[in-house]
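Minutes, structural biology subgroup

Action item carried over from last meeting: produce the structure token record for Membrane protein (Pseudaquabacterium pictum). EB confirmed the sequence was re-checked against the source entry. Recorded below for completeness.
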Amino acid sequence: MPSAARPPAAALSGTAFATLLLIALMMGANHVAARLAFNHGVDVATAVMFRSGITALVVGALVLATGVPLALSSRQRRAMPAIGLLVAVQSLCLYSSVARLPVALALLAFNTYPLWTALWARVVYQHRPEPRVLRAMPVMLLGLALALDVFGAASGLGAAGQWAQIGVGVAFALAAAATFGLALVLTQHEAADLDGRLRTALTMAQVGLLAAAGVAWQGGPHLPADAAGWLGLGALTFLYGTAFTIMFTVLPRLGVVGNSAIMNVEPVFALVLAWALLGQRIAAVQVAGGLLVVATVMWLGLRRR
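Output recorded by EB:
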């Protein structure tokens, strides 16, 4: 899980910029692979269990290999179960959205999480939102409205027909954004001083265990029905785990934080990949709205603290 704390923006080297784009590409491709797996028999809980469990093992091995201190303060021990639960809910909700919406639209709706982060910081810690966030809010919501075609103009379905088609998927994406925003706020205030590698390993382990409990409750995993499904499940697990491994091994050496604004181009990569590999298409006005959301989130992410 990326850190919520961001130092002032600094100039990126070419290598750092390329690495950030690679991570964004892999994270976007992870969601496209997830949709492929869902189309071929895999259910959301099974996908989250595989993805999070293997990522926890990879990052946990990295923690042990690099000698990261394993001790947690009492405050961190209290916070980490809540953070793990929130990220588990976020993971299940986001993949549930990806299973129902074009991948790029699910990610765009999820990319409203900076607004939820500001809301939760106000509600939980009484922090006033920055003026920049307040200015960004209507712009981001306008872009999202265009991307989702909320009035059904691009689809020709009308507002009622469009929301009958996308409503559940959008609700899942917004629930993912809300829970992720709260997880970021708790991380920043309760666990920011915990090493990012250890925090991620613990969070992913909790998510994997909670997803495994859900899989057991439903009677066992829903495994792929054919080779395409296995390809999707294997790809989403490999891409997600590799992206996180790069995030915590390469980026620190390049002097780049793991949640740099550059990585918010993930929905753009997902849009292109979903079009090329899954045949998912959205109207030009929806693409324009999506680009507006991405640009606004990047503008927020590049602000100096």
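Discussion: The chain has one domain: 14-301.
Next step: EB to file the record with the rest of the batch.
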